[in-house]
Amino acid sequence: MEDTFGTETSEGGAPSELDRKINRFFPGAVVRKDLVKAVKGNAIVPSYVLEYLLGQYAASDDEATIQAGIDTVRKILADHYVHRNESELVKSTIRERGRHRIIDKVTATLNEKDDVYHAEFANLGIKGVLVEPATIKAHPKLLVGGVWCICDIEYFYSDDARVVPWILGSIKPIQLSNFDFDGYLTARREFSTEEWTDLLVQSIGFSPTLFGRRAKLIQLVRLIPFVERNYNLVELGPKGTGKSHIFSEFSPHGMLISGGEVTVPKLFVNNANGRLGLVGYWDVVAFDEFAGKKKRTDRALVDIMKNYMANKSFSRGVETLGAEASMVFVGNTSHTVPYMLKHSDLFDELPESYHDSAFLDRLHHYIPGWEVDTIRGEMFSDGYGFVVDYIAEVLKSMRSTDYSDRYQQHFTLSPDISTRDRDGIHKTFSGLMKILYPHGEASPVEIEEILRFAIEGRKRVKDQILRIDSTMADVKFGYRDKSEVWHPVTTLEEDEFGAYYRRERRGGPIAEGGSGSSAAGGTVDAPQPIPEGIPLPAAGVPLFEGHRDFQENQRGVSYTTMLVPYLRGATQITITDPYIRQFHQARNLMELIEGIAAVKDAAEEVHIQLITSESSEGDDKLRKQLELLLKIKQGAGVAGINLDVTFQSSIHDRSIVTDTGWRILLGRGLDVFQFVNGDAFDLATRLQEYRQVKAFGVTYIREN
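Predicted structure:
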């Protein structure tokens, strides 16, 4: 990497297998992600600015080199970054030295009166600095929103009061100057899909070990606007889930603006002087705090935006201009998903002018922000990821390529979906292909995964439009494979809250088998779990037999509805699960026992035989496991439930067998719930229905 401040870097060993591999195939292009916090201090700069510096001085896996790089970057920030409250001191330094290098955000404007460009420095607080036309031509983003730069500022006083004493000696935007795309593709082939996904999640800044596959895909969808031209994305969800982080910190090619600051001249064109707005210069324009029913909106802006989102163009007087900027809308919700489904729709939080079927139909994908966990400290990664400006340039370089047809040799979309539905699915699929499989090599199973995800995101948009506009035609969302087998696609909230999801449309009932039906033209293989709040089946009521699948991030699942009805009345229960070792796994077993205790006859006893495996992680871990099992045995005994434990060295199947004739095959054993932080004031700590689950399946078999 080019060294702006004249310091050399080196490389060394690695702490983990994946990190070692990352450093081996991407030397100099990756950095340890926890270093940003270590150097940031009180500097109010985007992460990509800090990673630009870390990429020059700490892009190594050798601890000594990293520490030396951190010290260097800290010194650079101390000597060159301009803090607002120290601006006068920096001005004095420039005056006394005659020339000084600074890091600041620079914005340029055209002074039509004198026919010159002037620069303004945000933190230094100076303006009117002359900028050469060649500089503006090379870096046009200086004119719209400003760019973080490394600048040499000179001082030369003149008796002429009209002459600004500040002189721009040199300017270098903080972004990668070049990279080897072919090398990037070659290196990608050395990683499995799982490894590559984890590398990308670490590049965003998160630890992949705390994310399931679906949760990782949701994070990666946030990157699609950077790799796909004219991509329209919306994400609504609770506060604190990192919705706007990527668009403010991840790339120098994206601009995050407050939803209330949007005007036609700022976004598209100023007809008074003909100057282009943000969409003419930035790859991504993201609107923060977009939700809010009572927010005032400019109806003319909404109309222009609808035209741009549909046609990729807007008018400047009599001239029609095209642009490639993707549009992202992020905002907070104030109600739960079932509440919104029962009383309105999932776009209910939008301002009235945007709660319009014509506008919403131009959205390609709806990220379910309610599935994204609130950001916690332990979620941040200390592993290696791409230096942000490196991956930002990679994504930018792929915006002109199109991977939308890569599924067509294996799958066929429903023929009755609209052109806009197809465009939305294609653009999401193409974006995920470019992010996950830039080399174009993916198996049919991998292609099917992201095709389903793309269809689901567009279906979430369309299903809500059907609630708003009765004139919209129903659509069957799904695809056929090469054997002509139909695969319907449903959204997760449709599976969770089917009774509310499939309510009547405002213009009449949703047709059976249409977009509002989970059948979507076929029969759903898995019956839905019993919704929370519905009583257990009474004794004698037939129980479901067969297989049931649960999706990652699904809520409303508990042992009380999933397992306990099958265990009612049993006096001998055998549980086979090799992983009852850690605290959360022991807690799961205790919660199942609690469910059994709640439905058993107090005058009867139940015998539970647990078949599990000993911890193989050392004597301390084994001792802890035995202590947990003893506590469970003691606690269960109070309710007349006798627990015996048998250890076996090799267990493959996970199951529950009762003396009443039920065999329940558990794909993941009892460990089906995602991480719960243990906060006493978090409902998920006490009630399983409020926890998100991992992807798993259960098979219920009735035996004689």
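Summary: DSSP finds 25 helices and 26 strands in the chain.
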